[in-house]
Amino acid sequence: MSDHEDHKAESLMEKITEKVHDLKNNSSSSSDSDDDNTISAMKSKVFRLFGREKPVHNVFGGGKPADLLLWKDKKVSGGILGGVTIIWFLFEVLEYHLLTLVCHSLILALAILFLWSNASTFIKKSPPKIPDVAIPEKPVMEIVSSLRIEINRGLAAIHQIASGKDLKKFLSVIAGLWFVSIISNSFNFLTLAYILLVLLFSVPVAYDKYEDKIDPLAEKAWIEIKKQYAVFDEKVLSKIPRSMKELKDKKKKV
């Protein structure tokens, strides 16, 4: 009987310890979830560049384009950047012309394929398999449709600016075009496009890697820019009429 009672007591103690252990796990998991919620809430309050709330990968639309810009596949991203660098080097440093480069590339490719196809019978190897290349209709139509939408938006913006309804927007566009014209005097179009592409392949991945260090600095800079803009708006922009009609009304009042 004593052995039976001892066995019951041991089983009862085991059940009690298991319940205590479960209660500890539940309390620790709830505390962990509370900590996670607190951390996520704190992260949401942290200043993010351009006011973004999504990861950098989602900001660039996700998928393959974002993978290329963020160097998720280093071979493909490096290959694209290396290929563009070679093209820039050929045109800008070696001063190749586009038509000359295309003709020389086609001559080299056709000569290699032609000689390989004819020599395969002598060297007893299979001839090269040249794939049939055709441009599919659907992607081309999607690209054309997207371009049409963007061009129509640009034309609508130009129409709104040229109508004289918003003087501030007119002056800001003129200042932007003037700034672009100054840059274009310093660089030709190909060099400018290459610089923009290098920045596109370097700045996002650097920001994605060091965003916790960049965002606080960007927050300080943004606060200072807002202060300076408020002063500029008070002293200059607020005195500029939004349209020619408003300017005429002010003259009549004077």
Estimated share of beta-strand residues: under 5%
Report mean pLDDT, rounded to a whole number. 76
Report the principal-axis shape: extended
Derived from helix and strand composition plus strand pairing, the structural class reads mainly alpha
Radius of gyration: 33 Å
Characterize the largest beta sheet: strand count, sense, and whether it forms a barrel: none
- Please tally the β strands and state the result: 0
Keywords:
disordered N terminus, 254 residues, single chain, mainly alpha
Mind explaining what this structure looks like?
This protein has 254 residues and is mainly alpha-helical. The radius of gyration is 33 Å and the shape is extended. It starts with a helix and ends with a helix.
What would a concise description of this structure say?
This protein is an all-alpha fold and 254 residues long.
